[in-house]
Amino acid sequence: MSIAAFVLRRLLHALPLLVCVIVFNFFLIHLAPGDPIQALVGEFPAPESYIAEMRKVFGLDQPLYIQLLLYLKNILTGDLGFSFYYRQPVLSVILDRVPATLQLMVPALIFSAVIGILLGILSARKPYSLADHTISVFALFGYCVPAFWLGQMLMAAFAIELGWLPSQGIKTVGVDLEGFSLLLDRTAHVALPFAALAVRHLAVNARMMRSSMLEVAYEDFVTVARAKGLDEKDVIARHMVPNALMPVVTIIGVDIGFLFTGSVLVETVFGWPGIGRLMYESIVKRDYPVLMGNFLITTALVVIVNLIVDLIYVWLDPRVKYNK
Amino acid sequence: MKVRPAMSENSAKETDRRERRTFLFAGFVALLLCLAHGIASAGPVKGNPRKGGTLILGMAADPSTLNCGIESSQIVAMVTSNIYNGLIHMDEESNPHPDLAQSWDISPDGLVYTFQLRDNVKWHDGQSLTSADVKFSFENLVGKYNARGREAYRSIKAIETPGPTTVKISLKKAYSPFLEVLTAHDGCIMPKHLYEGTDVFKNPRNNDQPVGSGPFKFKEWHKGSHITLVRNENYFKKGRPFLDSVIYRIIPNPATRAIAFETGEINAIIASNSFPYQHVDRLKKLRNAVIKDIGSPSLIGVNFNLKGNPILAKKEVRIAIAHAIDKKFVVEKGLRGVGKVIDSVIPPGIPWAYNADVPRYPFDLKKANALLDEAGYPKTTPGTRFALKLSFEAGNDNAERPVQILREQLKAVGIDIKLERLERSVMLEKIFQKYDFDLWFGPLTTRGHPAIGTARLYMTSSITGQPFTNFTRYSNPKIDQLFDQAVAATKKADMVKAYYEIQDILMRDLPTIPVADRLQLNIIKDQFQGALTSTETYERMDEIWWVKGAPLKEGDFERD
């Protein structure tokens, strides 16, 4: 089977999955108590006519199944609906937040993948050595500590006590920066949320890589490699790492699926204008269309990323074939 | 024992003279103060403003829109009130001052309001603002969609525009708080030429490039990050605004907001819903910053479900509960001292309407127990008389801690309280639409006028199933009549009398136990000065100046 046919078949499988996810999310969200219009109206009573008009404007006066059918029909035309709160098309509300989230997530994920894998290899080279223990303790800490707490601690240390870094936001407002100072400003702003976010991913990757390395360390082909007199570096780089990478790639793949959802906690703590915060705010405001849009994009991404991960498997491990 | 000798005549004269001198001196000082005050009170802008600078404000969330014609929440008005204008604006004592209208006239029967607009007002795109814009806004935007000013706008019979700068509004019946809603918050005037014939909910100006007439022009809105407004060089008020720009920085997490203020990333937090009350103690210790209580009148209290629970339908039970609550403790520990104990449903924050002489229910456990025994609810199982559900909004700092204290206090008289923590949108439905509660504790904004903030809670016609209307379902024809009388009064004394009586009756019937008037705190770096005392400071950014700006001469700017 060719690679194109494989991709096509997988995508066809994904379609019913996507529809199921949409329908399931739709009902799940509507099951939650709370009326979006009442949430929208605020603390002072609104005229009945106003509320009726709002319901009509947002199509909430229709029965639920009609709302669902309309929603599905609109998605087919690329229309993700209209935000109750922002009164703007959902797609533009979400796309507004994409750059900020990518700016935070891409460096954090790349850093945690590369450094995590390296730390894992380092750890597994001499198990139970001082280096291994140090890395393990650090990884366990990084894995256990809640991101919002770590975020606030980093803020207390680097923004308040030392005053080196800004405590929140994506950039300094009120000044127009250019060139190097712009880069510096953006980097300074991303540093703390980046750290709060990367630590956990880094820890998971390092632990995963370590155990995976230790598993392959006793495989026959490693023994053979050593027996034929290969340098230890070559044994690790050419034989152990490619094989040990498989489970780590899966985990990183899952992480990438959440690239566009951002991190709710970190983005909220650091006032980062990304998608994670948008998601949280739309739950509070009962902004169903934005919430649904977010779910849909996330689901689609997870499906696509899984497909890419499968393709990487084939590349990493020749034993895996497209037809099985 | 030594007896003090009686004062000799001489020394008496001496004292007399000294007193007279002191008196003269005091009089002189008073005169000076009066003069200074006379100069300073030419308008809401007091002191010596300077020009320049950028003020960065911390704000809890993005506004939903920048169209103040369809939205009146505080978070929207914080921004829009500085881009748009109302016909008038109010100072901290609820006195009207000219804004778009330079003068106005109210007919003796209170039915016709005639406004003379300034003739030099331009929209930010250069078009002239005329009476047609005012008429359009009242008929198609604020008048139709503003929730808080609903009653006022419903009382409008007709709007005439005899000339480009004259607006004549006739009312169906006298409505004394009519001027209250004509501020930029509840009566913002929007450009007819950009909104006429469009879908007002989807007009792109709502989000992008709104065109106002106000002191600041819209520059950018980076959602989730910040909104920037810059000085309107052609503003109709001479020399205003003082600041070059105002930036609203959106920081959702209260702890981060407090830290950003400490580190100087923001200069001020000026809105009740954005102040990080949990961190008030730490912020109070900061140097170079001023915390001000701007006393936004509100009613924090225990509200009873009068129709849904037979126990609470009994007045003696409600009175007993009132006696069982130690309000002082609730305010000190529950509200972190950020509040004042109150005994009436109209808070002292509305000084002219507040009646201090109402029936009070001091903290008295013995009396509470006796009343509950009398009402027929003796302590049965160990210490318990009956159980009640106390509902409140999750995450609302004015409720989260106080309800814990209330539970303990009511336990002491044998009432078993189950706390029900409701997420906001669930609360709106459960409490206000379905009346599914026993007790509800939380803040209710009363604003500057009982006709707006209090009538909605106790009039029979306000039992509508909508959020923050009459949800205790209290109904008393006498109260309805008094509220009607108050809004129709053309003399302030008659209006005050009606509100006094209303408070007296409500405190006897006790649909609500008033506990506290929430303080609305503002914090601002001391290098920014200006109008920080008014209840809706955030609407008046053109009155704030930066002490390091360029000095201005008297006469170079308007004070009003």
Can you describe this structure?
The complex is a heterodimer of chains A (324) and B (560). Chain A is mostly helical. Chain A is 75% helix and 0% strand. In chain A, helix 5 packs across helix 8 and helix 9 (220-227) runs antiparallel to helix 10 (232-257). The longest helix of chain A is centred in the middle third of the chain and has 39 residues, at 179-217. The termini of chain A are close together. The mean pLDDT of chain A is 85. Chain B is α+β, with helices and mostly antiparallel strands and 560 residues long. Chain B is 29% helix and 21% strand. Chain B is built from 17 helices and 23 strands. Chain B has helices spanning 9-40, 74-80, 131-140, 142-145, 150-154, 192-195, 254-262, 280-284, 315-324, 327-334, 365-374, 400-411, 424-433, 450-453, 455-458, 477-488, 492-509, and strands at 50-51, 54-59, 88-90, 96-98, 101-106, 112-117, 156-163, 166-171, 216-222, 226-231, 245-250, 268-270, 289-293, 298-304, 339-341, 386-393, 415-422, 439-445, 512-518, 521-525, 528-530, 544-546, 550-551. In chain B, a hairpin with a 5-residue loop joins strand 3 and strand 4 (96-98). In chain B, helix 10 packs antiparallel against helix 12 and helix 16 (477-488) packs antiparallel against helix 17 (492-509). Chain B is globular and about 75 Å long. Residues 1-15 and 30-42 of chain B have low confidence and may be disordered. The interface between A and B is large, with 53 and 57 residues.
